Amino acid sequence: MTELESWLNLHQEEPIDPALPICDPHHHLFDLPDRRYVLEDFLQDVGGGHNIVRTVFVEYGSRYNMEAPQEMRPVGETEFVAGMTRQQACGRYGTIKVAAGILGYADLTLGAAVAPVLEAHIAASDRLRGIRQICTFDENHDIIRSTAPRGMLLNPMFREGFSCLRDYQLSFDAWLYHTQLPELVDLAGAYPDIPIILDHIGGPLRIGPYASRREEVFGEWKKGIAALSGCSNVLVKLGGLGMTFCGFGWSERAVPPNSAELAEAMAPYYLWCIEKFGCDRCMFESNFPVDKRSYSYTVLWNAFKLITRGFSKDERAALFHDTASRAYRL
Q1: Considering the entire predicted model, what is its pTM?
Q2: CATH code at 18-327
Q3: 291-300: per-residue pLDDT in tens?
Q4: Bridge partners of 130?
Q5: Is 309 helix (H, G, I), strand (E, B) or coil?
Q6: Can you give the residue ranges of every domain in the chain?
C-alpha cells in the first residue's frame, strides 16, 4: 500500500445512492517510467460501491510510439488504451465499460496537416471520440504550470487544425485556466458546429499571486463561465478542484476531507455552472488519478451526490450519466 493510499484510508465512507448509474467522463491511464496507473489500479479506485457503468479515457502523454514521426507518436497512446479495453472485453475485469470513449492527443497547430494524425487515431480504435490539446498558460510560470504558448486558441494554425475535427466528427476537450476563458468563448463562437467540452470547470486559479484575491478570481471565473454558456456548442465537466493550483489544500491535511466538507467547498462552483449551462450541458467527472491526491473516488462521488440532493431524478440522471454519454456518443 502506498503512502497516499494509507492516507486516504484514514477516512472511508459507504457510497450514497449506490444504484445511480454513473458515466465518468474524465480519467487517465498511463505507464510512465516514474509512475503507473493502469486498468487494475483504476478499477480498484472505482470499486467502492458507486454504480460506474462506463468511462471516458483522456490523453495523458503515455506510451507514445517513439519510432514514429513526431506528429504520429501520440497514436501509440490510443493503441495502448485500446489494448486494455480488449483485455476487459474478455470479461476478466468485470462489467464496467472502461474507456468506452477515448480522447487522444494531436497537435492542432499543425494546421491541415493534422488530418493524417486524426485518421491514425481513428484507425487505432473505433472508440476515439475526440481530441484534447492542453492549452494552459499563465504568466507565473514559476508557480503555475504553463503547457501551451500564450494565446494558442487564437493562433491561425491551431484554428486550421481545429477545423479539421469537423470532418471526422470529433469533439475538442479544452483544458485551460480561468484567465483564458475569453479565448475559448472566441473559439467556440468562430466554430459553432464543433462540440467543445470544457475540462475542470475552466481551472480557477487560487495559489501564488491569486491566493490573496480569491473572491476577485471567483468573480472573474463566474463572468467567464457565464459568457461561455452562451455558446451552445460548449459543455462543461464538473470536477478537478482537487488539483493543487485550486488552492483548497486538502492534500496537506492530516486526515482526508469527508464528502460533506467537499460538497460545501465545491458547491458554489458547480452550482454556478449548472445554473448557467443547465444539467443537459454539465457532467460530473473524477479526474482520477490526478485528483486522488486530495480525496478518494468513493468520497468524491458522494460529494457530488450531496451537492445535487435537491435535484430531480432527470436532472441527476443528466449530470451523472446522460450528458456525458450523449457528448461522447457512447
Answers
A1: 0.96
A2: 3.20.20.140
A3: 999 999 999 9
A4: 103, 171
A5: coil
A6: 18-327
